[in-house]
Write a structure and sequence with these properties.
With 80 residues, the chain is mainly alpha-helical. The chain contains 5 helices and no strands. The protein is globular, with a radius of gyration of 12 Å.
C-alpha cells in the first residue's frame, strides 16, 4: 500500500524552495546558517516528504535568515 502525499506538505515544500531560491541560497548554505537543520532534512521538506516541527521551522528561518512568519506566508487550503 502506498502512502498518498499530503498536498499541504507539497505546497509548503514548494514555498520553502521558492523562498530559498529567491534569496539565492543553496541547501548547503541554509543548513550551514541554521543551528541543527541538515541538507537532507531541508531536501525532505522541499520535496513534501517531511512534516516539519515548530523547532525545525524556527531553525529553517534562522538558516534562511528570515522571520518565521515569512516561512508560513503561503497559500494553502485548510480543508485539504
Amino acid at each position: 500500500m502506498s502512502k498518498v502525499p499530503d498536498k499541504r506538505l507539497i505546497s509548503f515544500g514548494i514555498h520553502v524552495r521558492t523562498l530559498r531560491e529567491q534569496l539565492n541560497l543553496t541547501q548547503d548554505q541554509v543548513a550551514a546558517n541554521s543551528e541543527k537543520l541538515t541538507k537532507a532534512t531541508l531536501s525532505d521538506i522541499e520535496n513534501g516528504k517531511r512534516n516539519a516541527a515548530v523547532t525545525t521551522l524556527l531553525d529553517l528561518a534562522r538558516g534562511l535568515k528570515v522571520h518565521p512568519k515569512k516561512i508560513l506566508d503561503f497559500n494553502f487550503k485548510l480543508e485539504e
